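Homework help board

Subject: predicted structure for assignment chain

Our instructor gave us this sequence and asked us to write out the predicted structure in token form, then describe one feature. I got the tokens but I'm not sure how to describe them. Can anyone check?
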Amino acid sequence: MTWKNAECPVCHHIFTEDDDVVFCPDCGTPHHRACWEQQQHCANEALHGTGFTWVNPHEEPPKKTASAPAAKRIRCGNCGSWNEPGTNVCTNCGERIEKKNGSFSPANGKGPSRGGFFDTDLNPDVVPSNVLIDGIPAEEEAAYIGPGSTRYLLSFIHQDRDNAKIGWNWAAALFSPLWLFYRKMYLWGFVWLLAYLLVSTLTTEPGLLDIFLNMMRISTETGSLQAAQSYMYQAMEALPPLAFWQQALSSVFQAGSMVVMGLFGDRMYKEKTRRSILKLRAKASSMPEYMSLLQKKGGVSILMPLLSIVLYIFINYLAILLASLFQ
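My token output:
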């Protein structure tokens, strides 16, 4: 940990292993995330452009070895640690190091990195791959997000820089469970379905179960689907209207779910993406493994939205059964 015993240049508290630390992409100065977000810039911003690189005053200088003299070692511009000659990825923080014009410079330096480790649809002309979002390079976020990464990263940057809590996501608003399962936010997807089951149970007419059972009996006895459908239409028209509170609850859930998911969908996805990436960083032992985990654990799912449709249909029938039992 190259920032051990160093102090945050904003609050001047000594860093601990449990602190959430981010590094300036220009000079490598470490800050507490909260301090960085408060300042909105590096504490050593005035020194940028002078070649300044932060060095931990408590860090022991690297020892010279016959195989790798200190003069030939490569210094990571992200965390300040020294790496062996020929190293492409910092062994301390995992940041990529590129070779440019005979010298090495960090991938999160100025200017977009177009080559990269990751094959994504990120448009570097819109979102440079070296931009930090929650201390994570956009290139890594894009590798985890997969399809639509440019659109989501623009939203993430807006949230990060402007401290925006809300936005608008039409897919999340109009197709909430499908979008949640498509973006692999399975926990939130099941929470939505459970809420829908509860509301449907409370707002379903108990007599529906008898209508469906009689419809099946008529269809079996007469062998006529038309007769069964005719009975169903007549029986449905004869049902008493829902109580006012049931109608209100149904309307509030439908409209409220749409508004909440539309406003906070991107925020939920941003937090899920950040937590997942940090877990994968801790799990991976090398950059290739890290890349593989990002693309495997992230991205989107085609199968799970289809499963959510099946669950949605099942929930409607289950609500009819539960309504007949508890109402």
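Reply (TA_rk): Your tokens look well-formed. For the description, you could write something like this. The chain has eleven helices and eight strands. That's the kind of observation they're looking for.
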